[in-house]
Amino acid sequence: MAADTVWALEAHLESCAPCRSHLAASVATEAPDVAALLDTVRAGLEPQLDAAARAPSRRHLTRRVSAWLTPAMAPWLAVIVVVTLMALLLNAVASPTFFGDTSPLLLIAPVLPLCGVAASWSRGLDPAHELTTSAARAGLPLLLRRTTAVLVVVLPGLLVGGWLTGTMAAAQWLLPSLAFTSTALAMGSVVGVTRAATGLLVAWGVLVVVPASATGRVPHALQRVLQPDQLPLWGLLLALGIGAVIARRNAYSTL
């Protein structure tokens, strides 16, 4: 069978008990030599497996964490935290008229998760990228787990930042942030997740952050899109991104 068919079959067998039972019965009746070999291996491994099951293992926790995170993401998540703190500090010390009616934290909140998303599937940053992406359970499920891990780190920090400053309602940035994330994943099925996330980051920086820093005010049109009355448009963008991800779900295993 082709390699991608083997990977899909392995992934299915992990979650389908009836198919595993059917395969085991077929091996026992049609390949007795293989069944005998499996029995020999099982007999040799059982003492070790029993001992491992009785003793708590840190490796088990490490494996569970590695299914959601990659070490390459740690520096990026640290950078996100630092950027959030710097935005909070700027919000506290900057002149009230420097950014107009827009909080500095609000300028970066919609795209902060993209930093972690860009690192979550990066070939250059993850030394185990080839091993990870060739596993049977790689592709969209692993990418979604890593994206969720990024959001779990980023969103609470932004919620706390908005609460501390009192200038950034969650309604203004939460839906845009999720919309940007889903758009990055959708575009990533075509150009690669890292390229898509980086491209959106650069575009937002050029259109919003740089002009705000240079002129002391956010362009009126971009201020407008972050107002609560624009949430239906962000919701539509989020829905379109999710739909594109679902429609192209098979493309992520070949990125």
Describe the structure.
The model has no long low-confidence stretch (mean pLDDT 78). The chain folds into 2 domains: 3-55, no CATH class; 70-254. It has helices at residues 3-15, 17-30, 32-54, 58-66, 73-93, 104-108, 112-120, 129-133, 140-165, 170-191, 193-215, 220-225, 231-247. Helices cover 76% and strands 0% of the residues. This is Membrane protein. Keywords: Membrane, Plasmid, Transmembrane, Transmembrane helix. The chain crosses the membrane at residues 67-90, 102-122, 143-164, 170-193, 200-219, 231-247.
Return residue spans where pLDDT drops below 50 for at least 5 consecutive residues. Answer: none
Shape: elongated
Mean pLDDT score: 78
Cα-based radius of gyration, to the nearest Å: 24 Å
| Helical content band | over 70%
Structure summary, number of beta strands: 0
Count of discrete structural domains: 2
Note the beta-strand portion: under 5%
N-to-C SSE series?
A: HHHHHHHHHHHHH
Q: Helix/strand-derived class?
A: mainly alpha
Q: How many distinct helices?
A: 13
Distance between the termini: 21 Å
What is the compact description of this entry?
With about 260 residues, this protein is mostly helical.
List keywords for this structure.
transmembrane helix, mainly alpha, Membrane protein, transmembrane, 255 residues
Describe the secondary structure blueprint for this structure.
Elements: H1 3-15, H2 17-30, H3 32-54, H4 58-66, H5 73-93, H6 104-108, H7 112-120, H8 129-133, H9 140-165, H10 170-191, H11 193-215, H12 220-225, H13 231-247
Helix pairs in contact: 5-7, 5-9, 7-9, 7-10, 7-11, 10-11, 10-13
